[in-house]
Specification:
The structure holds two protein chains of two kinds. Chain A is mainly alpha-helical. Chain A contains twelve helices and no strands. Chain A has one domain: ABC transporter involved in vitamin B12 uptake, BtuC (Orthogonal Bundle). In chain A, 71% of the residues lie in helices and 0% in strands. Classes of the chains: A mainly alpha, B alpha/beta.
Chain lengths: 312, 340
């Protein structure tokens, strides 16, 4: 190949791909960050994202409307999170068991409904979310990186300061953080702990569903079973690596997405190393990050703990 | 009375002698053939979907007058696939169990227990067990070569790309043939292959495709199921195993087609001989694949993009295809891992 990694066009392509790749992860990570700060160790992120992707596919294949597809994705993600909240906040089921069970349920149901939907025929095609066609996209360097992105990418980045503001500059945010640290205090004040955890879960599910919807509408021309391919798990890792802080999570998602984009371009350019090494790079990085950050434990004190009034 | 008894005995004796002389009584020839199919990726995937389409075509022809029916599983691997095969076998309802990928480990545990069932395994990674296991192989490298020749003519940047799932003998062959075909008509062609190492990740496949576009590729052989980047970049792409044009009518110029019809007919014939002529099941232990001339592969029509192909290119492609079909040109078979 004539180009190399330092070629200007390749650098631009890597950075543009980084922002694209970040988008579904960032939506989900900001949502699940809120859920986890409320004390729910949500392991059903993969299932919620997959459900969102599937719902978006069904909606766009039947209506052709990207708006309805995104709304369907948000609704589907909220339904998975609602189930998770019922199991964990109301029924006091172990958070890990509930989340893993919901992932299996989502994988099975989406596969079953997908097969029922296409019923042996070729799957319907659809027009997804195209980047806006405007003059700014033609700007050198910045155009392809920033302005050839879909508007939802900008919205995903906007979510970071919004979630930060919610968590650290509002009373509701303070109470939400308190849910993960010491819910008995809120309970003592007369705040409905379970209702707040439901609200945080639904917000997380909505954002993760939106991420799943973006994944299929912006990246794919078809639905495939398990199309999320582990991105939900990557979100969980990013939240841990980011120390349950919005900016930390943003940094972790950026690192993963950049390494993924770099790995793809390095393989495409044929740099002479085994391609499996490039593909493993984001996951190796996540392991290193988790190992390195282990001693800087910022995990909410009662994250994943089943709260029962009067026990603490 | 004694006479009647003697006559009856004589009649029975003659009838028995006649029956013995004629050999064992032949059962009526079967009229139905029931096939259980273990899928590896799901019918929406070109590999599996093209098999079901071929079954529909063959069943419509009713070979040997058979009413062929089939039932397929969800994607299954490993022990789950083995358990499904056992359930199908124990049900007694299926004559053939067609396991459409690398399943010879699972078949090895079942084939002797169910000697009257014909097992089929497909593609690379299998072991030729013989007996009642048959090993179907699929090479579409001749189609890949034709697409490559077309790409070699159509490219303006002289940079081509291929995006695959996993490297394997029966994947490498068609990718190598694609680039060989391109270079046969355009020695200036460069490009390489990327493997996404996943069956189910169109998003990653899309990013690989976009990266190839960024490096200058203007035609992509897409084996990993996603043509959205082709649309965004407004470049031509090729699909694999099934006709993928419906996914992106404006960009998918053609596809390498896996046609399983001769494979299915071969297996049906083997089963028929086993059932009606008492021929033992002697499955192949070496690869057996059907060439393009034998109907095992082809390229898809250009659909609405036909006018994008210059007439002289079309004519050259027709000539090349004819030479492959009549055997005057043999597409080189290279199964080494493509350059990446």
């Amino acid at each position: 190949m004539s180009a190399d990694l330092y070629d200007g066009a390749i650098v631009v392509s890597i950075l543009a791909a980084t922002l694209r790749t970040m988008t579904p992860l960032l939506f989900s990570a900001m949502g699940e960050l809120v859920t986890q700060r409320a004390g729910i160790w949500n392991m059903s992120v993969e299932g919620a994202m997959l459900s969102g992707a599937f719902a978006a596919y069904i909606a766009i294949a039947t209506t052709g409307s990207p708006v309805l597809a995104l709304l369907a994705a948000i609704f589907a993600g909220m339904m998975v999170s609602l189930l998770n909240a019922i199991l964990t906040a109301s029924l006091k089921v172990d958070h890990f068991v509930a989340g893993l069970a919901l992932n299996l349920l989502a994988a099975g149901l989406t596969l079953f409904w997908f097969r029922a939907f296409i019923s042996g025929r070729g799957q319907p095609t659809f027009d997804g979310l195209a980047p806006p066609d405007w003059a700014l996209a033609d700007l050198p360097v910045l155009g392809p990186i920033l302005f050839a992105q879909r508007p939802l990418t900008w919205l995903a980045f906007l979510c970071v300061p919004l979630v930060w503001f919610l968590l650290y500059r509002t009373r509701q945010g303070l109470e939400l953080r308190c849910l993960g640290e010491n819910p008995a205090v809120l309970d003592f004040k007369g705040v409905n702990v379970v209702a707040r955890q439901y609200a945080a879960s639904l917000f997380g599910g909505a954002m993760t569903g939106l991420g799943g919807g973006f994944l299929i509408l912006a990246f794919s021309d078809r639905f495939l079973p398990d199309i999320t391919a582990g991105r939900g798990w990557l979100v969980v890792v990013a939240i841990i690596a980011g120390g349950w802080r919005p900016l930390g999570v943003l940094a972790a998602v950026t690192v993963f997405a950049f390494l993924e984009a770099l790995a793809i371009h390095a393989q495409v350019l044929g740099l002479g190393l085994p391609h499996q090494l490039f593909l493993a790079a984001p996951y190796i990085a996540s392991l290193l990050l988790l190992t390195h950050l282990r001693h800087r434990d910022r995990q909410p004190a009662l994250l994943g703990e089943v709260y029962r009034r009067g026990e603490r | 009375m004694h006479f009647l008894t003697s006559l009856r005995c004589a009649t029975i004796g003659v009838t028995a002698a006649a029956a013995l002389a004629a050999g064992p009584a032949l059962a009526d020839d079967p009229t139905e053939l029931s096939v259980a199919i273990i899928l590896s990726a799901g019918i929406e995937n070109g590999w599996d979907g093209s098999l079901i389409e071929a079954f529909e075509r063959v069943a419509a022809d009713e070979p040997h007058g058979l009413d062929i029916s089939w039932r397929y599983s969800d994607p299954l691997w490993g022990d789950a696939a083995g358990e499904a095969m056992r359930l199908y076998a124990e049900s007694g309802r299926f004559d053939i169990i067609w396991a459409h990928s690398t399943y010879s480990d699972q078949v090895a545990r079942l084939k002797d227990e169910f000697p009257d069932i014909l097992f089929v395994v497909v593609g690379s990674g299998n072991e030729g067990l013989g007996g009642n296991q048959y090993w179907v192989y699929k090479r579409v490298h001749e189609a890949g070569y034709l697409l490559g020749a077309l790409a070699g003519h159509m490219t303006e940047s002289n940079v081509l790309g291929a995006v695959g799932t996993f490297p394997a003998d029966d994947v490498n062959d068609e990718i190598n043939a694609f680039f060989a075909g391109a270079r046969s008509v355009n020695p200036d062609v460069t490009g390489n292959t990327s493997f996404i190492e996943s069956w189910y990740d169109p998003a990653r496949a899309g990013e690989f495709t976009a990266a190839k576009v960024a490096t200058g590729a203007d035609i992509i052989f897409q084996l990993a199921s996603n043509f959205q980047p082709c649309e965004e970049a407004e470049i031509l792409c090729f699909g694999n195993f099934g006709d993928q044009n419906s996914f992106s009518p404006d960009t998918v110029l053609s596809s390498a087609l896996a046609l399983w019809d001769p494979d299915i007919r071969w297996i049906v014939d083997e089963w028929w001989a086993f059932k009606t002529e008492e021929e033992p099941l002697e499955g192949n232990t070496e690869l057996r694949w059907f060439s393009m001339a034998e109907g095992g592969s082809d390229i898809a029509p250009f659909h609405g993009l036909a006018d994008r192909v210059p007439q002289e290119v079309q004519a050259e492609l027709d000539t090349l295809r004819a030479s492959i079909m009549d055997g005057s040109f043999e597409v080189p078979l290279d199964v080494s891992q493509p350059e990446s």
